[in-house]
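Blinded run. Sample ID left blank on purpose so nobody reads anything into the name before looking at the predicted structure. Input follows.
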Amino acid sequence: MAGWIEGIQASIDYMEAHLEEELRMEDIASMAGLSPFYFQRIFGALCNMTVGEYLRARRMTIAAQALSSGEAKVIDIANRFGYDSPDSFSKAFARFHGVSPSRVKAPGAPLRFLAPLHIKVVLEGGSMLEYRIVELAPFTIVGVHRRFHSETSYQEIPKFWDEYMAQGDEKPVMGMFGVCADLDGGAFDYWIADLYQPWNALGQGCETMVIPGGLWAQFPCRGALPDSLQSVNTKIWSEWLPALRDYTLAGNYSIEAYMPPAEKPEDCINYIWIPLKKV
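Blinded prediction complete.
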């Protein structure tokens, strides 16, 4: 566990040391020894915010301090934090603090503050998390996919599902899987897919993708969606993986496996699959 926590903290320290520079997710994640795909999921589960949200909040915190305590001009602070213009900086500042930069020195101006994160683990009694590790041969999925950015994926992917399911009987696949496939650390493809059956013609707009064979940890998510899925997902990244022994993450994939719906939502069982390899 210490190694995981120290790695995430090293990434946070790296961000803090380079807040006034353009940061690449690949460089941030490398400080923790993780791919950008996995780093962003672990960071979100541990810190309850995205990497982008953390960077914006810290930059706006420091910007407010600089404006309120010195003679710095808005244009200078905008340039300092890499904004194209004072106007774009002012809009970002107002979204975070609720006031414009020009009002910072006014008496009683309300400002928000986010201190640098320091990761620590507090054990507050065990929580059960069911799982099994299985070995699967390579398999092929067929479905439709759309590209998402990690910063907005939690809001946009449910909209993708709603839009897709609204097609009714015109849907080319049933939606047995939801598959995240990493591209470059900042963007990833999300697939709504089924198992590929080569004797069936591809539906309109469908493509195929091979999922590599190997070991998978499979976690049942019991209860109504999306709460059951999100609850287990948070425990995987914040509790199970930091304590994992003898295995490490493999491949930049994660899979949601959806079972036929039960009569009652509370009786539903779906799964999250995470690829692993032995160390």
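Unblinding after everyone has recorded impressions. Residues 132-278 form a domain with the Multidrug-efflux Transporter 1 Regulator Bmrr; Chain A fold (CATH 3.20.80.10).
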